[in-house]
Amino acid sequence: MTRSRYPAGPVVETRWWTALDDGRVQCDVCPRHCKLGEGQRGVCFVRAAQKNKIVLTTYGRSSGFAVDPIEKKPLNHFLPGTAVLSFGTAGCNLTCRFCQNWHMSKARETDLLAEAATPEEIAEAAVRGGCWSVAFTYNDPVVFWEYAVDVARECRARGIKTAAVTAGYICEGPREEFFEWMDAANVDLKAFSDKYYKDLCGAKLDPVLKTLEQFDFTWPTKINRLQVQNLFRLKFIEDKVNAIFIGGVGLGKTHAAIALGLAACHAGYRARFATAIDIINNLAAAQKAGRLVKEVKAYIRPELLIIDELGYLPVDKHGADLLFQIISRRYERGSIVLTTNKTYKHWPSIFNNDSTLTSAILDRLLHHAETIIIEGKSYRMKDRIEP
Ligand code: SF4
Residue 233, Cα to own-chain centre: how many angstroms? Predict the structure, then answer.
Protein backbone atom coordinates (compact mmCIF):
# COMPACT_ATOMS: atom_id res chain seq x y z
CA MET A 1 0.00 0.00 0.00
CA THR A 2 1.36 3.44 -0.90
CA ARG A 3 1.63 6.21 1.68
CA SER A 4 -1.50 8.31 1.60
CA ARG A 5 -2.09 11.90 2.61
CA TYR A 6 -5.66 10.92 3.52
CA PRO A 7 -6.96 9.25 6.70
CA ALA A 8 -6.54 5.49 6.90
CA GLY A 9 -10.18 5.06 7.87
CA PRO A 10 -12.54 3.40 8.06
CA VAL A 11 -13.87 5.87 10.67
CA VAL A 12 -13.34 9.54 9.83
CA GLU A 13 -14.81 12.77 11.07
CA THR A 14 -17.23 14.62 8.81
CA ARG A 15 -18.23 18.23 8.36
CA TRP A 16 -21.93 18.17 7.66
CA TRP A 17 -23.65 17.94 11.04
CA THR A 18 -25.22 20.01 13.81
CA ALA A 19 -25.02 19.52 17.57
CA LEU A 20 -28.54 19.52 19.05
CA ASP A 21 -29.56 20.96 22.41
CA ASP A 22 -30.67 17.56 23.68
CA GLY A 23 -27.16 16.14 23.30
CA ARG A 24 -27.77 14.32 20.06
CA VAL A 25 -26.08 15.19 16.77
CA GLN A 26 -27.88 15.68 13.50
CA CYS A 27 -26.37 14.55 10.19
CA ASP A 28 -26.92 17.21 7.52
CA VAL A 29 -25.71 15.37 4.43
CA CYS A 30 -29.11 14.30 3.23
CA PRO A 31 -32.65 15.56 3.81
CA ARG A 32 -33.32 12.79 6.33
CA HIS A 33 -31.35 14.81 8.91
CA CYS A 34 -30.94 11.76 11.16
CA LYS A 35 -30.77 12.80 14.80
CA LEU A 36 -28.44 10.38 16.51
CA GLY A 37 -27.52 9.61 20.09
CA GLU A 38 -24.03 8.41 20.92
CA GLY A 39 -23.24 5.19 19.04
CA GLN A 40 -26.35 5.29 16.86
CA ARG A 41 -26.18 4.94 13.09
CA GLY A 42 -28.23 6.85 10.52
CA VAL A 43 -30.66 5.31 8.07
CA CYS A 44 -27.75 4.86 5.65
CA PHE A 45 -26.02 2.79 8.36
CA VAL A 46 -22.56 4.10 7.45
CA ARG A 47 -22.73 7.50 9.16
CA ALA A 48 -22.90 7.40 12.93
CA ALA A 49 -22.66 9.51 16.07
CA GLN A 50 -19.36 9.11 17.90
CA LYS A 51 -18.01 11.44 20.56
CA ASN A 52 -20.66 14.05 19.79
CA LYS A 53 -19.76 14.20 16.11
CA ILE A 54 -21.00 12.50 12.97
CA VAL A 55 -18.44 10.13 11.51
CA LEU A 56 -18.27 8.16 8.30
CA THR A 57 -17.47 4.53 9.06
CA THR A 58 -16.58 3.29 5.57
CA TYR A 59 -13.82 5.68 4.50
CA GLY A 60 -11.19 3.97 2.35
CA ARG A 61 -13.15 0.72 2.08
CA SER A 62 -14.63 -0.59 -1.12
CA SER A 63 -17.06 -3.38 -1.87
CA GLY A 64 -15.18 -4.10 -5.09
CA PHE A 65 -13.94 -2.70 -8.38
CA ALA A 66 -14.78 -3.35 -12.02
CA VAL A 67 -13.76 -1.89 -15.34
CA ASP A 68 -16.89 -1.13 -17.38
CA PRO A 69 -17.77 0.70 -20.57
CA ILE A 70 -18.92 4.20 -19.59
CA GLU A 71 -22.18 3.49 -21.40
CA LYS A 72 -23.01 1.02 -18.61
CA LYS A 73 -23.33 3.83 -16.03
CA PRO A 74 -25.31 4.68 -18.26
CA LEU A 75 -23.72 7.85 -19.65
CA ASN A 76 -24.24 8.38 -23.34
CA HIS A 77 -22.50 11.66 -24.07
CA PHE A 78 -19.60 11.54 -21.63
CA LEU A 79 -16.29 10.18 -22.94
CA PRO A 80 -18.16 7.72 -25.21
CA GLY A 81 -16.43 4.46 -26.00
CA THR A 82 -14.05 4.67 -23.04
CA ALA A 83 -13.52 2.47 -19.99
CA VAL A 84 -14.54 3.57 -16.49
CA LEU A 85 -13.33 2.20 -13.16
CA SER A 86 -16.47 1.51 -11.12
CA PHE A 87 -16.49 1.17 -7.40
CA GLY A 88 -18.77 1.51 -4.42
CA THR A 89 -18.83 1.05 -0.68
CA ALA A 90 -21.83 0.11 1.43
CA GLY A 91 -25.00 1.78 2.66
CA CYS A 92 -27.60 4.03 1.08
CA ASN A 93 -29.82 6.87 2.24
CA LEU A 94 -32.82 5.67 0.23
CA THR A 95 -34.74 2.50 0.95
CA CYS A 96 -35.89 1.59 -2.57
CA ARG A 97 -37.73 -1.70 -2.47
CA PHE A 98 -36.54 -2.57 -5.98
CA CYS A 99 -32.81 -1.96 -5.42
CA GLN A 100 -30.71 -4.26 -7.60
CA ASN A 101 -27.60 -3.64 -5.48
CA TRP A 102 -29.37 -4.30 -2.18
CA HIS A 103 -26.54 -6.51 -0.89
CA MET A 104 -24.26 -3.44 -0.96
CA SER A 105 -26.69 -0.59 -0.43
CA LYS A 106 -28.35 -2.31 2.52
CA ALA A 107 -25.24 -4.02 3.87
CA ARG A 108 -25.24 -4.20 7.63
CA GLU A 109 -21.88 -5.97 7.71
CA THR A 110 -18.86 -3.84 7.12
CA ASP A 111 -17.05 -7.15 6.43
CA LEU A 112 -18.48 -6.76 2.96
CA LEU A 113 -15.99 -3.94 2.48
CA ALA A 114 -13.08 -6.28 2.00
CA GLU A 115 -10.90 -4.03 -0.10
CA ALA A 116 -9.03 -1.15 1.48
CA ALA A 117 -8.10 1.49 -1.06
CA THR A 118 -6.75 4.98 -0.56
CA PRO A 119 -7.92 7.78 -2.86
CA GLU A 120 -4.49 7.78 -4.52
CA GLU A 121 -4.64 4.03 -5.13
CA ILE A 122 -8.02 4.25 -6.81
CA ALA A 123 -6.91 7.08 -9.10
CA GLU A 124 -3.71 5.18 -9.92
CA ALA A 125 -5.69 2.00 -10.63
CA ALA A 126 -7.77 3.97 -13.13
CA VAL A 127 -4.62 5.23 -14.86
CA ARG A 128 -3.08 1.74 -14.97
CA GLY A 129 -6.30 0.16 -16.20
CA GLY A 130 -6.62 2.58 -19.13
CA CYS A 131 -9.79 4.05 -17.63
CA TRP A 132 -10.64 7.62 -18.54
CA SER A 133 -12.87 8.04 -15.53
CA VAL A 134 -13.85 6.68 -12.12
CA ALA A 135 -17.52 6.12 -11.31
CA PHE A 136 -18.97 6.20 -7.81
CA THR A 137 -21.63 3.61 -8.26
CA TYR A 138 -23.16 0.39 -6.79
CA ASN A 139 -24.29 2.42 -3.77
CA ASP A 140 -25.01 6.12 -3.49
CA PRO A 141 -21.84 8.24 -3.10
CA VAL A 142 -23.83 10.78 -1.10
CA VAL A 143 -23.39 8.56 1.98
CA PHE A 144 -19.61 8.26 1.51
CA TRP A 145 -19.26 11.94 0.61
CA GLU A 146 -15.81 12.46 2.18
CA TYR A 147 -14.27 9.39 0.53
CA ALA A 148 -15.80 10.17 -2.87
CA VAL A 149 -14.57 13.78 -2.81
CA ASP A 150 -11.03 12.73 -1.85
CA VAL A 151 -10.97 10.14 -4.64
CA ALA A 152 -12.24 12.79 -7.07
CA ARG A 153 -9.50 15.15 -5.92
CA GLU A 154 -6.84 12.55 -6.70
CA CYS A 155 -8.46 11.71 -10.03
CA ARG A 156 -8.47 15.36 -11.06
CA ALA A 157 -4.76 15.61 -10.24
CA ARG A 158 -4.13 12.81 -12.76
CA GLY A 159 -6.49 14.00 -15.50
CA ILE A 160 -9.00 11.26 -14.73
CA LYS A 161 -12.66 12.32 -14.85
CA THR A 162 -15.27 11.31 -12.29
CA ALA A 163 -18.89 10.29 -12.57
CA ALA A 164 -21.43 10.04 -9.76
CA VAL A 165 -24.29 7.60 -10.06
CA THR A 166 -26.67 8.94 -7.47
CA ALA A 167 -30.28 9.40 -6.49
CA GLY A 168 -29.47 13.07 -5.85
CA TYR A 169 -30.95 12.96 -2.34
CA ILE A 170 -28.64 15.45 -0.71
CA CYS A 171 -28.82 18.79 1.12
CA GLU A 172 -27.82 22.06 -0.47
CA GLY A 173 -24.35 22.66 1.08
CA PRO A 174 -22.96 19.16 0.56
CA ARG A 175 -24.67 19.03 -2.84
CA GLU A 176 -22.90 22.11 -4.21
CA GLU A 177 -19.49 21.04 -3.03
CA PHE A 178 -19.95 17.41 -4.04
CA PHE A 179 -20.89 18.19 -7.64
CA GLU A 180 -18.06 20.68 -8.00
CA TRP A 181 -15.83 17.61 -7.84
CA MET A 182 -17.82 15.53 -10.32
CA ASP A 183 -17.35 15.79 -14.07
CA ALA A 184 -20.50 13.84 -14.89
CA ALA A 185 -23.51 12.62 -13.00
CA ASN A 186 -26.31 10.21 -13.56
CA VAL A 187 -28.98 11.53 -11.21
CA ASP A 188 -31.55 8.80 -11.04
CA LEU A 189 -35.00 10.39 -11.01
CA LYS A 190 -37.01 7.39 -9.96
CA ALA A 191 -40.47 8.83 -10.54
CA PHE A 192 -42.32 12.11 -10.98
CA SER A 193 -44.47 11.58 -7.93
CA ASP A 194 -43.88 12.35 -4.29
CA LYS A 195 -46.10 9.41 -3.34
CA TYR A 196 -43.87 7.02 -5.28
CA TYR A 197 -40.79 8.37 -3.51
CA LYS A 198 -42.53 8.07 -0.15
CA ASP A 199 -44.01 4.60 -0.67
CA LEU A 200 -41.19 2.87 -2.51
CA CYS A 201 -38.01 4.79 -1.69
CA GLY A 202 -38.69 6.18 1.78
CA ALA A 203 -37.79 9.66 0.55
CA LYS A 204 -39.22 12.85 -0.93
CA LEU A 205 -39.21 14.04 -4.54
CA ASP A 206 -38.44 17.72 -3.97
CA PRO A 207 -34.75 17.46 -2.90
CA VAL A 208 -34.06 15.34 -5.98
CA LEU A 209 -35.64 17.98 -8.22
CA LYS A 210 -33.46 20.60 -6.56
CA THR A 211 -30.38 18.53 -7.38
CA LEU A 212 -31.48 18.24 -11.01
CA GLU A 213 -32.22 21.96 -11.23
CA GLN A 214 -28.64 22.88 -10.43
CA PHE A 215 -27.29 21.42 -13.66
CA ASP A 216 -26.34 23.69 -16.51
CA PHE A 217 -28.85 23.62 -19.32
CA THR A 218 -27.13 26.44 -21.21
CA TRP A 219 -24.53 24.69 -23.32
CA PRO A 220 -26.20 24.74 -26.75
CA THR A 221 -25.01 27.82 -28.57
CA LYS A 222 -28.04 28.37 -30.73
CA ILE A 223 -31.53 27.94 -29.43
CA ASN A 224 -34.62 30.09 -29.61
CA ARG A 225 -34.78 31.02 -25.94
CA LEU A 226 -38.08 32.89 -26.20
CA GLN A 227 -39.66 29.88 -27.78
CA VAL A 228 -38.34 27.59 -25.04
CA GLN A 229 -39.29 30.00 -22.27
CA ASN A 230 -42.76 30.13 -23.73
CA LEU A 231 -42.98 26.35 -23.58
CA PHE A 232 -42.22 26.53 -19.86
CA ARG A 233 -45.48 28.45 -19.41
CA LEU A 234 -46.98 25.02 -20.17
CA LYS A 235 -49.87 26.36 -22.22
CA PHE A 236 -48.90 23.80 -24.85
CA ILE A 237 -50.02 21.06 -22.45
CA GLU A 238 -53.35 22.75 -21.89
CA ASP A 239 -53.76 23.14 -25.67
CA LYS A 240 -52.62 19.54 -26.34
CA VAL A 241 -49.85 20.77 -28.60
CA ASN A 242 -46.64 18.82 -29.18
CA ALA A 243 -43.06 20.08 -28.90
CA ILE A 244 -40.36 18.49 -31.03
CA PHE A 245 -36.72 19.16 -30.13
CA ILE A 246 -34.38 18.54 -33.06
CA GLY A 247 -30.61 18.66 -32.73
CA GLY A 248 -27.39 16.69 -32.80
CA VAL A 249 -26.12 14.58 -29.95
CA GLY A 250 -24.93 16.23 -26.75
CA LEU A 251 -26.87 19.49 -27.15
CA GLY A 252 -29.18 19.10 -24.17
CA LYS A 253 -32.42 18.05 -25.87
CA THR A 254 -33.02 15.43 -23.21
CA HIS A 255 -32.21 17.91 -20.43
CA ALA A 256 -34.69 20.39 -21.87
CA ALA A 257 -37.35 17.70 -22.21
CA ILE A 258 -36.82 16.50 -18.62
CA ALA A 259 -36.91 20.08 -17.35
CA LEU A 260 -40.25 20.55 -19.11
CA GLY A 261 -41.47 17.32 -17.54
CA LEU A 262 -40.43 18.53 -14.09
CA ALA A 263 -42.11 21.89 -14.63
CA ALA A 264 -45.27 20.08 -15.73
CA CYS A 265 -45.24 17.91 -12.60
CA HIS A 266 -44.76 20.94 -10.39
CA ALA A 267 -47.80 22.47 -12.06
CA GLY A 268 -49.85 19.37 -11.22
CA TYR A 269 -49.81 17.61 -14.60
CA ARG A 270 -49.02 13.94 -14.94
CA ALA A 271 -45.96 13.30 -17.10
CA ARG A 272 -44.21 10.17 -18.30
CA PHE A 273 -40.69 9.93 -19.72
CA ALA A 274 -39.28 7.09 -21.86
CA THR A 275 -36.96 6.66 -24.78
CA ALA A 276 -38.63 5.76 -28.07
CA ILE A 277 -36.92 2.37 -28.05
CA ASP A 278 -38.04 1.65 -24.49
CA ILE A 279 -41.63 2.43 -25.44
CA ILE A 280 -41.44 0.09 -28.42
CA ASN A 281 -39.77 -2.72 -26.44
CA ASN A 282 -42.21 -2.28 -23.61
CA LEU A 283 -45.21 -2.43 -25.93
CA ALA A 284 -43.81 -5.43 -27.81
CA ALA A 285 -43.34 -7.30 -24.53
CA ALA A 286 -46.83 -6.31 -23.40
CA GLN A 287 -48.28 -7.54 -26.68
CA LYS A 288 -46.59 -10.91 -26.22
CA ALA A 289 -47.94 -11.13 -22.71
CA GLY A 290 -51.46 -10.22 -23.88
CA ARG A 291 -51.60 -6.88 -22.05
CA LEU A 292 -51.02 -4.43 -24.88
CA VAL A 293 -54.26 -2.50 -24.34
CA LYS A 294 -53.39 -1.85 -20.71
CA GLU A 295 -49.84 -0.78 -21.56
CA VAL A 296 -51.00 1.55 -24.35
CA LYS A 297 -53.38 3.21 -21.89
CA ALA A 298 -50.47 3.88 -19.53
CA TYR A 299 -48.83 5.95 -22.30
CA ILE A 300 -52.07 7.71 -23.18
CA ARG A 301 -53.15 8.66 -19.67
CA PRO A 302 -50.55 11.31 -18.66
CA GLU A 303 -51.16 14.85 -19.86
CA LEU A 304 -47.55 14.91 -21.08
CA LEU A 305 -45.58 12.08 -22.64
CA ILE A 306 -41.87 12.67 -23.26
CA ILE A 307 -40.46 10.45 -26.02
CA ASP A 308 -36.69 10.71 -25.94
CA GLU A 309 -34.06 9.82 -28.55
CA LEU A 310 -36.18 9.02 -31.58
CA GLY A 311 -33.85 8.28 -34.48
CA TYR A 312 -30.83 7.01 -32.58
CA LEU A 313 -31.71 3.43 -33.44
CA PRO A 314 -33.67 2.25 -36.48
CA VAL A 315 -37.22 1.08 -35.85
CA ASP A 316 -38.66 -1.91 -37.73
CA LYS A 317 -42.19 -2.07 -39.13
CA HIS A 318 -43.64 -3.70 -36.02
CA GLY A 319 -41.97 -1.16 -33.74
CA ALA A 320 -43.16 1.72 -35.91
CA ASP A 321 -46.73 0.37 -35.80
CA LEU A 322 -46.59 0.22 -32.01
CA LEU A 323 -45.21 3.75 -31.71
CA PHE A 324 -47.84 4.98 -34.16
CA GLN A 325 -50.55 3.62 -31.85
CA ILE A 326 -49.31 5.89 -29.07
CA ILE A 327 -48.86 8.95 -31.25
CA SER A 328 -52.21 8.61 -33.02
CA ARG A 329 -54.13 7.92 -29.81
CA ARG A 330 -52.62 10.97 -28.12
CA TYR A 331 -53.50 13.16 -31.13
CA GLU A 332 -55.51 16.15 -29.83
CA ARG A 333 -55.84 14.38 -26.46
CA GLY A 334 -52.45 14.88 -24.84
CA SER A 335 -49.13 16.58 -25.51
CA ILE A 336 -45.94 14.88 -26.60
CA VAL A 337 -42.47 16.30 -26.11
CA LEU A 338 -40.20 14.43 -28.48
CA THR A 339 -36.44 14.65 -28.92
CA THR A 340 -34.69 13.52 -32.07
CA ASN A 341 -31.39 13.93 -33.85
CA LYS A 342 -33.03 13.74 -37.28
CA THR A 343 -34.71 16.52 -39.23
CA TYR A 344 -38.14 15.61 -40.60
CA LYS A 345 -36.96 14.85 -44.11
CA HIS A 346 -34.78 12.07 -42.68
CA TRP A 347 -37.54 10.46 -40.64
CA PRO A 348 -38.28 7.73 -43.24
CA SER A 349 -34.81 6.35 -42.45
CA ILE A 350 -35.89 5.92 -38.82
CA PHE A 351 -38.92 3.87 -39.83
CA ASN A 352 -37.35 1.39 -42.21
CA ASN A 353 -37.97 3.74 -45.19
CA ASP A 354 -41.70 3.19 -44.88
CA SER A 355 -42.82 6.57 -46.22
CA THR A 356 -46.53 5.88 -45.74
CA LEU A 357 -46.15 5.13 -42.05
CA THR A 358 -43.68 8.00 -41.61
CA SER A 359 -46.19 10.42 -43.17
CA ALA A 360 -48.95 9.13 -40.91
CA ILE A 361 -46.77 9.64 -37.84
CA LEU A 362 -45.66 13.11 -38.94
CA ASP A 363 -49.25 14.12 -39.76
CA ARG A 364 -50.45 13.34 -36.26
CA LEU A 365 -47.41 14.84 -34.56
CA LEU A 366 -47.07 18.05 -36.51
CA HIS A 367 -50.70 19.11 -36.94
CA HIS A 368 -50.46 20.95 -33.61
CA ALA A 369 -46.76 21.21 -32.83
CA GLU A 370 -43.83 23.47 -32.22
CA THR A 371 -40.41 22.56 -33.54
CA ILE A 372 -37.40 23.68 -31.55
CA ILE A 373 -34.10 23.47 -33.40
CA ILE A 374 -30.98 23.26 -31.23
CA GLU A 375 -27.65 23.90 -32.88
CA GLY A 376 -24.16 24.01 -31.47
CA LYS A 377 -21.22 21.89 -30.48
CA SER A 378 -21.85 18.76 -28.48
CA TYR A 379 -20.77 17.99 -24.94
CA ARG A 380 -18.25 15.58 -26.48
CA MET A 381 -16.57 18.49 -28.26
CA LYS A 382 -16.86 20.63 -25.14
CA ASP A 383 -14.37 18.36 -23.42
CA ARG A 384 -11.89 18.93 -26.21
CA ILE A 385 -12.22 22.67 -26.59
CA GLU A 386 -12.43 23.65 -22.93
CA PRO A 387 -9.29 22.72 -21.01
S1 SF4 B 1 -26.52 10.61 5.10
FE2 SF4 B 1 -27.17 8.87 6.40
S3 SF4 B 1 -26.97 9.60 8.52
FE4 SF4 B 1 -26.86 11.39 7.18
S5 SF4 B 1 -28.97 12.16 7.17
FE6 SF4 B 1 -28.72 10.81 5.37
S7 SF4 B 1 -29.39 8.77 6.05
FE8 SF4 B 1 -29.08 10.01 7.89
Answer: 25
Could you tell me the distance, in angstroms and rounded to a whole number, from the CA of residue 237 to the centre of ligand 1?
Answer: 38
Q: Residue 110: its pLDDT value, please?
A: 52
Q: Kindly indicate the confidence band of residue 90, based on its pLDDT and cuts at 50, 70 and 90.
A: confident
Which atom of ligand 1 is nearest to 93's Cα? 7
Q: Report pLDDT for 221.
A: 54
> Where does the pLDDT of residue 103 fall: very low under 50, low under 70, confident under 90, or very high at 90 and above?
low
Rounded CA-CA distance 294/288 in Å is 13
Which atom from ligand 1 is nearest to the alpha carbon of 31?
5
Sheet containing strand 242-247, strands side by side = 271-275, 304-310, 335-340, 242-247, 369-374
Say if CB 131 and CB 158 are below 8 A apart.
no
Please give the DSSP secondary-structure letter assigned to residue 178: H
Q: What is the CA radius of gyration of the chain?
A: 23
Q: Does the C-beta of 42 come closer than 6 Å to ligand 1? A: yes
Q: Which domains are delineated in the chain? A: 61-212 (3.20.20.70), 225-374 (3.40.50.300)
List the residue whose alpha carbon is closest to atom 2 of ligand 1.
44
pLDDT tens digits along 217-244: 555 456 776 788 788 889 999 999 999 9
Does ligand 1 come within 6 angstroms of the Cβ of 277? no
DSSP result, 179-210: HHT-SEEEE----S-HHHIIIIISS-SHHHHH
Using the mean position of ligand 1's atoms as its centre, give its distance from the Cα of residue 8 in Å.
Answer: 22
Does residue 385 carry a pLDDT above 70? no
Residues near 386 by beta carbon (within 8 Å), at least 6 away in sequence: none
Please give the model's pTM, rounded to 2 decimal places: 0.61
